């Protein structure tokens, strides 16, 4: 630990509380539908293998780096980087790393809450369907009986075209996120993780077994794991690396902030490994959960973002117990999204508490409200403001509506910049002894980890940044 100002007094009540909260941060919308879709579109097994390589060689070393800076600095992301820089005899300007992370988190939570609002809407739609079936004495009915497939699919379009409904769902989701964060590390964030994550895992395993029994697992295994290296293009590798950063909650203050609440006794390296392993495991299992259902009714596995909201409800219409499973499926995604958005709001909130002296409630309230307003613009981008292209002058964002712009800008620019700065800071600028002590790694293990942080991560992340911004340079 380094002696410094603005240190937090809050902490996790146990190592497991931290592990569950950090896994909750990592496991989110990114795992449940984005990873399986990307894997399917980009060459199945070849993509999965490359993704696992990214996790082990880049993601995991950076997860440990972020948690370590947080625990050493014991503050918000800005305060922690400043404290570690001071203890290493470096410029306080390294606080810029914390700034980038906090701004990234703030922007991500604004659109994340809108998409999570769609999930909440579907929890409601499927819930009404399921409880209707239950009331009529048939809890194992398939979903949406008597409705045309077009009507079921059309719900997403109906939702996106309805600004009031979108904003209402967004308000509820942001409100719940605020309430948990305002309740504190111990009474809010930790409690949410301790209840929601085990429930998430039970649902994940249960629905996967259901899919394996009634769905088409053989086709799923071929689709996700049969390696087709010809489809692993530079573009696909770029996607894999970006997805690994987002999925592990890197570059967005979450891990650094959560790291500040970790006790001195906790060994960070095995904990970081557990987080990375759980996140990747959930991404793969999510594929094994979704695709058997998709294939069972002959739907297109590469439908992209609409897969979960349009294709799956149609699948549930044709599956035994589809009403119940569909309801549980959206509850599962809702839990995953909530523990992630909590971690996103906690980064900026902790800055307000430590650097501004605000109360937790005030800080969480200010950031939740401002992020809510940006989210409202994102929601209106599907209807009233559908012609707006905020970064239309920039070719890679030329077609992007408001939500896609915030998503694309944070994902392609801010998040890789934050990861790059983290790698340079921890690999080159932070005091080596301090880093070694804090990491808990010794000898050759420390050497390997430091090499990955100092050399492999900056080069790989630098490449995603350049190729992400200038796709024309990507070799085809
Ligand atoms: N990791 C989350 C997901 O996969 O959905 C998203 C996320 C959460 C990103 C927290 C960044 C973060 F700080």
List the helices and strands and how they pair.
Blueprint lengths: L14 H12 L2 H13 L3 H29 L3 H11 L7 H41 L13 H12 L2 H20 L2 H30 L2 H9 L8 H14 L6 H6 L8 H29 L10 H12 L3 H35 L3 H21 L21 H28 L2 H8 L3 H27 L7
Helix pairs in contact: 1-8, 1-12, 1-14, 2-10, 2-12, 3-4, 3-10, 3-12, 3-16, 3-17, 3-18, 4-5, 5-7, 5-14, 5-15, 5-16, 6-13, 7-8, 7-14, 7-15, 8-12, 8-14, 9-12, 10-18, 12-13, 13-14, 14-15, 15-16, 16-18
The structure holds 4-fluoro-L-phenylalanine.
Description:
By secondary structure, the protein is mainly α. It has one domain (15-473): Amino acid/polyamine transporter I (Up-down Bundle). The chain is 75% helix and 0% strand. The chain is built from 18 helices and no strands. The chain has helices at 15-26, 29-41, 45-73, 77-87, 95-135, 149-160, 163-182, 185-214, 217-225, 234-247, 254-259, 268-296, 307-318, 322-356, 360-380, 402-429, 432-439, 443-469. α1 crosses α14 (322-356). The radius of gyration is 22 Å and the shape is globular. The relative contact order is 0.19. It binds 4-fluoro-L-phenylalanine.
């Amino acid at each position: 630990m380094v002696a410094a100002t603005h240190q937090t007094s809050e902490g996790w009540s146990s190592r497991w509380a931290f592990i569950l909260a950090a896994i909750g941060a990592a496991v989110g919308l990114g795992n449940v539908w984005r990873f399986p879709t990307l894997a399917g579109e980009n060459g199945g097994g070849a993509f999965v293998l490359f993704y696992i390589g990214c996790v082990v060689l880049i993601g995991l070393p950076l997860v440990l780096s972020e948690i370590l800076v947080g625990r050493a600095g014991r503050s918000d992301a800005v305060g922690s980087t400043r404290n570690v820089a001071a203890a290493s005899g470096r410029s306080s300007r390294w606080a810029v790393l914390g700034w980038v992370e906090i701004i990234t988190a703030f922007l991500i939570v604004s659109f994340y809450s809108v998409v999570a609002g769609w999930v909440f809407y579907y929890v409601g739609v499927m819930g009404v369907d399921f409880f209707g079936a239950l009331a009529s004495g048939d809890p194992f009915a398939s979903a949406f009986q008597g409705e045309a497939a077009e009507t079921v699919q059309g719900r997403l379009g109906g939702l996106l075209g309805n600004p009031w409904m979108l904003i209402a769902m967004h308000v509820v989701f942001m409100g719940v996120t605020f309430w948990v964060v305002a309740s504190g590390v111990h009474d809010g964030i930790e409690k949410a993780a301790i209840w929601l994550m085990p429930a998430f895992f039970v649902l994940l395993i249960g629905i996967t077994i259901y899919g394996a029994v009634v769905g088409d697992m053989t086709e799923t295994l071929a689709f996700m794991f049969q390696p087709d290296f010809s489809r692993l293009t530079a573009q696909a590798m770029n996607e894999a690396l970006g997805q690994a950063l987002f999925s592990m909650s890197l570059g967005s203050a979450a891990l650094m902030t959560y790291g500040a609440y970790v006790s001195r006794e906790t060994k960070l390296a095995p904990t970081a490994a557990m987080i990375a392993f759980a996140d990747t495991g959930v991404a793969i299992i999510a594929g094994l959960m979704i695709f058997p259902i998709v294939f069972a009714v002959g739907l297109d596995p590469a439908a992209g973002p609409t897969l979960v909201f349009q294709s799956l409800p149609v699948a549930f219409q044709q599956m035994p117990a589809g009403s119940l499973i569909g309801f549980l499926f959206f509850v599962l995604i809702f839990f995953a999204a909530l523990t992630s958005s909590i971690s996103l709001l906690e980064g900026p909130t902790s800055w307000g508490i430590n650097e501004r002296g605000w109360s937790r409630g005030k800080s969480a309230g200010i950031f939740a409200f401002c992020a809510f307003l940006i989210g409202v613009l994102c929601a209106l981008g599907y209807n009233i403001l559908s012609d707006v292209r905020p970064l239309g002058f920039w070719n890679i964002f030329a077609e992007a509506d408001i939500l896609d712009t915030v998503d694309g800008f944070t994902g392609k620019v801010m998040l890789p910049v934050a990861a790059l700065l983290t790698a340079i800071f921890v690999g080159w600028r932070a005091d080596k002894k301090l880093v070694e002590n804090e990491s808990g790694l010794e000898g050759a293990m420390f050497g390997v980890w430091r090499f990955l942080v100092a050399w492999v991560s900056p080069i790989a992340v630098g490449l995603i940044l350049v190729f992400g911004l200038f796709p024309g340079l990507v070799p085809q």
